[in-house]
């Protein structure tokens, strides 16, 4: 073979190999492109399906929430605080909760309960604040600026722990204590007409039980008196004191196990249990929320309680005697007596007669004055 033919054959061989390699590479690139296109189409389809599912889920959620809000609006006179918080949060996009009265600053039981409902319900923008006055009586609250200080933070819900423990110490009457607590409630409502105020009874204090003041009263008498009076009103109330003691009894425990060494404050276990009682009340206790925010409809008018509060006196015990049919009861006849004025008789004065004593036992002879003078 000539040299020229050899060169041509070599060139043809190289070209053939190049064409084959190019075709292979082209086929591989085309395949990869097709696969990528398929993946893109799959992703697009998935995104479309996911978007459709999300829209359906969001639509279902929105519809369910709309139904919840409508049901709350119709039954807000008998609803839970959690429902009310969601109602406010939906319309204002945030909600502020305040703890006021005989409550510790940053009370652990309160913070744990709020954190729990915030995790379980759509309450992302929920804030809490504390206005703590545990050492003051109800009389001090009325003469202070405590309500104005709290009102400046514009809370939507206020948990007002009543100061009955301090009222025991200052020794005021049951009537005055109850009157003062409602007067404070009226003052808060006047300052914050759209806030929901919930009265809360204080945690137990073992050392104060039967530590009676001069009126033979302890904080339980003041607390129970207000709870009894509140049955005549629609003021929201959580009787956590009674709930706590009932749960301690249900667990066959003693109150000492939940108190600090002094018997005045709750220990860690007590804080935890009290927080559970509070959280349960937030979720399950139905109260009248018509005093709070109104978005639709006309808000009921409010009449202050304290000026019209009449604390009933304890009725006298009447003992009724059973009279048999054979017994004849005759009503006594009243006879009017005649008054006779007494006659005054002046006493007659009689001069006393002096009689000299005679001592018969004496051996000394007696003499007359004449006989004495003769000596």
From TrEMBL:
Alphabetized GO MF terms: hydrolase activity
Record organism: Trichococcus shcherbakoviae subsp. psychrophilus
Q: Which SUPFAM superfamilies match?
A: SGNH hydrolase (SSF52266)
Q: What is this protein called?
A: SGNH/GDSL hydrolase family protein
Residue stretches spanning the membrane: 6-24
What does the UniProt keyword field contain? Hydrolase, Membrane, Transmembrane, Transmembrane helix
């Amino acid at each position: 073979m000539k040299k020229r033919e050899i060169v041509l054959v070599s060139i043809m061989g190289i070209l053939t190999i190049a064409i084959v390699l190019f075709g292979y590479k082209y086929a591989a690139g085309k395949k990869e492109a097709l696969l990528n296109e398929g993946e893109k189409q799959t992703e697009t389809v998935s995104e479309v399906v996911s978007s459709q599912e999300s829209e359906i889920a969001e639509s279902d959620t929105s519809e369910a929430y709309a139904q919840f809000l409508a049901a709350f609006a119709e039954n807000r006179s008998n609803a839970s605080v959690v429902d009310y918080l969601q109602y406010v949060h939906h319309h204002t996009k945030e909600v502020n909760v305040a703890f006021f009265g005989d409550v510790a600053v940053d009370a652990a039981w309160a913070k744990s309960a709020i954190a729990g409902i915030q995790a379980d319900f759509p309450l992302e923008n929920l804030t809490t604040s504390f206005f703590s006055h545990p050492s003051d009586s109800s009389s001090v609250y009325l003469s202070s600026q405590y309500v104005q200080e709290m009102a400046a933070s514009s809370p939507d819900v206020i948990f007002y722990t009543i100061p009955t423990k301090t009222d025991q110490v200052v020794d005021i009457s049951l009537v005055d204590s109850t009157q003062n607590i409602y007067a404070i409630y009226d003052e808060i409502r006047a300052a914050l007409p759209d806030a929901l105020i919930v009265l809360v009874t204080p945690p137990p204090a073992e050392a104060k039980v039967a530590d009676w003041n001069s009126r033979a009263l302890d904080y339980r008498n003041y607390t129970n008196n207000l709870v009894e009076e509140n049955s005549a009103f629609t003021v929201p109330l959580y009787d956590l004191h009674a709930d706590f003691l009932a749960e301690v009894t249900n667990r066959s425990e003693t109150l000492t196990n939940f108190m600090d060494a002094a018997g005045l404050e709750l220990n860690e276990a007590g804080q935890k249990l009290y927080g559970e009682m509070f959280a349960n009340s937030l979720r399950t206790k139905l109260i009248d929320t018509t005093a709070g925010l109104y978005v639709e409809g006309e808000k009921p008018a409010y009449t202050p309680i304290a000026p019209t509060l009449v604390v009933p006196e304890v009725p006298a015990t009447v003992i009724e005697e059973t009279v048999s049919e054979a017994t004849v009861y005759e009503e006594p006849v009243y006879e009017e007596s005649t008054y006779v004025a007494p006659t005054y008789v002046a006493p007659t004065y009689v001069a006393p007669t002096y009689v000299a004593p005679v001592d018969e036992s004496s051996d000394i002879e007696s003499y007359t004055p004449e006989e004495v003078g003769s000596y």
